[in-house]
Amino acid sequence: MSLRCLITAGPTREFFDPVRYISNPSSGKMGFALAESAQRQGWVVDLVHGPVAIKPPAGVNAHAVVTCEEMYAVCGPLFSECDLLIMCAAVCDMRPKIRAEGKVKKGDLSMTVEFEPTRDILKTLSAARRPEQTLVGFAAETDDVENYARKKLEAKNLDWIVANSVAKGGAFESDTNKVSLIGRAGEHLSFGPDSKAAVADWIIEQIAKLP
Ligand code: C5P
Fold first, then answer.
1. CA 138 – ligand 1 centroid, Å
2. CATH classification (class only), 4-208
3. Residue to mutate (ligand 1; options 34, 47, 122, 136; most atoms within 8 A of CB)
4. What percent of the chain stands above pLDDT 90?
């Protein structure tokens, strides 16, 4: 029986009225490259992705979502069936407290938007993990990348975290990436800079080496 892999990719959006939102410039390229690579290496792949301009790779089960809560709702049942989760999505960490029912009028410049945290999808899923599942997170940081990445690995109870620098715009919309793979047992491997396809192949190969 084939092993199942759940991969998330791209940004999420959080709205303060029906037509306006906050988000980030994630292109989804890294997550889509991981999905393509995993599928080629024999995994059955579910790809849950936010709004992106690229097409899902052929042969993967793609699920399009918009907000953090939608991503969580789709990931929940897929997570319980999967052997490997790679949470590559740039989930919006905050959302407006109020979403106006109608479009806010152009002249309403006195408007103040208050934010609240969104759900940490990875932390919520990892709290219900089975020991034999492999969980991989991404840490995009502007400074002290590896230190913050290691903290996230522990806080989110992961097996691996992929650390990359997004200083000066960094990896977000680029076709290349340079990453470190930091493991629970203190492993520290580096790869790149190289194409996101090559980085994806390398990450999947390293993770598949796990017992
Ligand atoms: O945003 P942060 O740096 O904490 O992201 C680290 C990891 O947590 C990433 O793998 C990201 O996909 C995941 N995450 C999440 N839900 C959030 C924020 C981040 O699953 N609300």
1. 7
2. alpha beta
3. 122
4. 79
* ipTM greater than cut 0.85: yes
Nearest residue (by CA) to ligand 1, atom 21, is 120
Report, as residue numbers or ranges, the catalytic residues. Answer: 24
Q: Where are the domains of the chain?
A: 4-208
Q: Evaluate: CB of 137 within 6 angstroms of ligand 1.
A: yes
HEC letters along the chain: CCCEEEEEECECCEEEECCEEECCCCCCHHHHHHHHHHHHCCCEEEEEECCCCCCCCCCCEEEECCCHHHHHHHHHHHHHHCCEEEECCECCCEEECCCCCCCCCCCCCCCCCCEEECCCHHHHHHCCCCCCCEEEEEEEECCCHHHHHHHHHHHCCCCEEEEEECHHHCCCCCCEEEEEEEECCCCEEEEEEEEHHHHHHHHHHHHHCCC
Q: What is the pLDDT of residues 23-37, one digit of tens each?
A: 999 999 999 999 999
Residue closest via CA to ligand 1's atom 17 equals 120
- Residues (pLDDT < 50) of the chain are 210-211
Is any atom of ligand 1 closer than 6 Å to the C-beta of 152?
yes
